[in-house]
Amino acid sequence: MQYATELETTIRDMVQTGRGILAADESTPTIAKRFIPIKVECSEENRRAWRSLLVTTEGLGEYISGIILFEETLGHNSDNGATIVETARAQNIVAGIKVDKGTTPLALSAGDLITRGLDGLAERLRSYKQQGARFAKWREVYAIGKQAPSRNGIEANAEMLARYAAVCQDEGLVPIVEPEVLMDGDHDIDRHAEVTQAVQHAVFHALQRHRVALELMILKPNMVLPGKELRRAKVDEVAAATLKVLRRTVPAAVPSINFLSGGQDPEEATANLNALNQQAPDAPWKLSISYGRALQQTALQAWLGNNENVQTAQQALLKRARLNHLAMLGQYQPSQEND
Ligand code: 5MM
Question: Do residues 221 and 260 touch, judged by C-beta distance below 8 A?
């Protein structure tokens, strides 16, 4: 592989004990949704200001090793005048880029989605790399229904993730592979486990078929949870169900599993990660984060689009990053929320 050394360096910089990834790659419609509750207009300047606030948080690099950005942000400067990418780098945070172009229904496969964006991907990656991106991220989404996802949906999505990952490694960017089985609905935890297992199984088959080097990628999966409409499961139950699926499907060659938060409350996402690390201190992979909402939510609520609130919002972000750092070490306690 042409860029093996470069990929190894990026993995080494990103996969570190006690540090995780901040997902700040919301597309414009998604960040607009995040701004609605705080009544902030989704203008380009507000999006820039928000991402600037995140990367200029002093001390963030102690707990965060990577940040996923949206395409537009690669061209933005932070408030200190440097690019967002350079500002992250100054904190020892590697910048990466979401390269998928969102989901669309999978034709003739009711209930299944498929993600777009493979056409021209290699050319786009070359240009993102010139702008400082060292890793990429692609998400496939699986909604649970009576018949969904179908076998066809699972295979088609796995193929997309593997083709994307192969192109990334061929261009020297570490791929984050994100198959997200949604927690929307009233399915129980066993059904979520069953689907997550089938999805991961197919993803790793496809990755091997496409010769993706498992040592040079990061997996970003969902935790195994009951549907949102049911009661919240106990942390030990979530950790046990999640580990069972991961042990059955994820080869030990994968260096790190960085969970998405998927709509969990920030405290719930931290507590579940902590239980995972407590139950599997000797897991072959790091068990870390690539949280979006669970890292940003409290900071957004503190910011409210007001410059005067920047420092308070940064403290809120730093607090969540620090508590998740403790959870990566299995040392988090809910009482630390009050520190
Ligand atoms: C599942 O979403 C990813 C992780 O975020 P959460 O921890 O909030 O679940 C996130 O990286 C997502 O892929 C991006 O926000 C992009 O989402 P859209 O919907 O804009 O493609």
Answer: yes
